[in-house]
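Hi! If you just cloned this repository, the fastest way to understand the data is to look at a raw example. We've pasted two of them here, unedited. The first protein comes first, obviously.
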Amino acid sequence: MPEKAANPAPLGLSGFALTTLVLSLFNAHIITAGSDVVVGLAAFYGGLAQIVAGLYEWRSGNTFGYAAFFTYGAFWEWYFITALLIDMYIISVTPAGISAVLAAFGVFTLIFWIYTFRINWALWFVFLTLWITFFLLAAGLTVVGVMWV
């Protein structure tokens, strides 16, 4: 009898939620611990944990879960690498560049939100608030954006 695999969705969702929450609290100046806290979470919990969750979703045949978790995991890995390279003075990134990335993820999330119309209301709500958040952040409204997370 094959062993039943655990559901990877709670790992992926919690990795995204916790990392997003800490970044949002930092952006809203509610915590002042420094961006190093966010960078570590982005690399391992927001990024790596979601990519692993996405791979397990792929293995179980859940294309939506795979694409969502892998994409948002890659987003956090992008955040980690970008922050690291900026801190090391290897690259410089303009606000317009960051805004373009956030807007692109907003478009991706908007498309995925449409897919949730047939899934369930909880995912519908998560993706609704997430695409709104990405667009608010892309517009530079970080304090308003944190209210949606």
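Ok, and the second one:
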Amino acid sequence: MKAITIKGSERESVGKKATKALRNAGKVPCVVYGGEKPLHFSADELAFRDLVYTPNAHTVAIELDGGTSVKAIMQDIQFHPVTDAIIHIDFYQLFDDKMVTMNIPVSLEGNSPGVRNGGRLLFRKRKLAIKALPSKLPDFFNVDISKLKIGQNISVASLMSEDFTILHPESQVVVQVKTARTAVVTDDEDEDGEEGAEGAEGASEEAAQE
């Protein structure tokens, strides 16, 4: 997984006045948890642009002017309710031998024949939570829908790997094609899709209850 470098300064004072002064100067107060003790630092708001304003998942290399350097992932972020400016970010420190939980985006690839025949593509899970060692974290899940016909779905079961654990039931539907009024079911789709349609309908009800 690609790492984004954030350069900042360690914070000696973490009181309200010091935090307000940082924000007025265009800095974002941050804290890194997971180590021996919390690490407080600040960085320019622009430094977080490629980390925050993207659908992709990234790890972070935090480099502070005092020489401290840690690897982390973003855990929580707070925005100003009016201006949408970043006002605080929490990070969690990474260790090479320690499992970490992270949300990984799902990317769809190909054109579904079911959609071409008028079916509705339902993208149920745009991100999947996984648990893995930092070196095993994938950039994204690449899901090929080029063979997905009307009534069929792709579930978590087909995305399993020895490199990580997906923290969702294997039956969880990621993407499916449902019948629409204008849909045209070909002979091949009717033959292959009837059994799959029952599974997709059941998964749809399950997703609706979540």
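That's it. A detail worth noticing about the second one: Residues 19 and 47 are 18 Å apart (CA to CA).
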